Amino acid sequence: MTASPPPARSDDRLASDIARLALRYRGRFSPETIQRLVTDSYERLARHARVRTHLVVLAEHLATERLDALAHIEGAPGTGLPRVLFVCSHNAGRSQMAAALLAHRAGGHVTGSSAGPSRPPTSNRPSCRC
Fold this sequence. Notes:
By secondary structure, the protein is mainly alpha-helical. The model has no long low-confidence stretch (mean pLDDT 79). The termini are far apart. It has four helices and two strands. It has a two-stranded parallel sheet.
């Protein structure tokens, strides 16, 4: 039986992350929207986390990616950078490495993100040839 994640709203560090993101996205998203996304990101990560040491930092990073993607979709000013999404179906880290390499090589001219399933597949056979 897994323990339920600790309430995100009571964490002072998470509250400071929300305040920092509210300043960063002032005029683009309401503080309530930011709080909702940060809290949701934290709870999603905490739901399956085995190690909880860096959940607050990871939640802020995930919420930032989600807010940037939302701003891009809504066509907000200053979000005109091309976006590239790398997807890896086996949670092997390939998409994260590809996004990091793109960010490093593009020098801020392209935004890279990574995605994959929330759980690795049960089969050991890769579904793609990378």
